[in-house]
Amino acid sequence: VNISHKELEKFWEMNKGWVEGYPLILQVGMVSPSKDQLTTLMALKALKRKYPKVKCFFAGYFDEKDGYYVLLRNYISSAGLKENVCFLGHVSPNFLKVFYRMVDLAVFPGKGQGSWLSPLEALVSGLPVTVSERLPCSKLVSKWMLTFNGAEDLALNIERIVGLHDWWRGKAKLAQQYILENLTWENYCEKVLKVISSLF
């Protein structure tokens, strides 16, 4: 995987002050109400009691003047999470692949609006994930991973994954194998063609 020198510098800058043994969490997606970063921040506040140095990275475009982003920044300040959160902005696919290997898990609290591809991408990388029950892919993902409903559930799921991380990594590998064998674009196109052919 090729990533730029600038992107590597960004990663090391983000990790200043990180202490080994504390969870590194990732959420992928543009900063917006539909991706629901606020739920992740609320879970992070609860987690901080047990893991003071927990860190969450938000990978996705954001506008500093956007009302939702301002709301998130205000929550971060009031909850004392300034040292625990990093907004990366847009990152390249190559950088994201490297990131999947460096964090402990990915979280996806979106509200059902098409947020199905990113969790599968993370699983294909062998990364444990936990997804909202509101997401279309939650029923599929729940075969291997934990789903949640709200910030309290999310915080508990993160604790469970961190506590048995090797076990959940193994489950992610099973998901990876299933996805690569059954959810390729070629596989999808074949099934669509069969459905269309059956209509004529």
UniProtKB/TrEMBL annotation:
Q: From the Swiss-Prot or TrEMBL record, what is one GO molecular function term?
A: glycosyltransferase activity
Report domain Glycosyl transferase family positions.
Answer: 15-160
The source's superkingdom equals Archaea
Q: State the UniProt keywords alphabetically.
A: Transferase
- Family matches, as InterPro entries: Glyco_trans_1
The entry's protein name is Glycosyl transferase family 1 domain-containing protein
Species this chain originates from: Candidatus Iainarchaeum sp
Q: Write down a Pfam family by its short name.
A: Glycos_transf_1
Q: Which residues form the signal peptide?
A: none
- Keyword set includes Signal: no
**Known Gene3D superfamilies for this protein?**
Glycogen Phosphorylase B
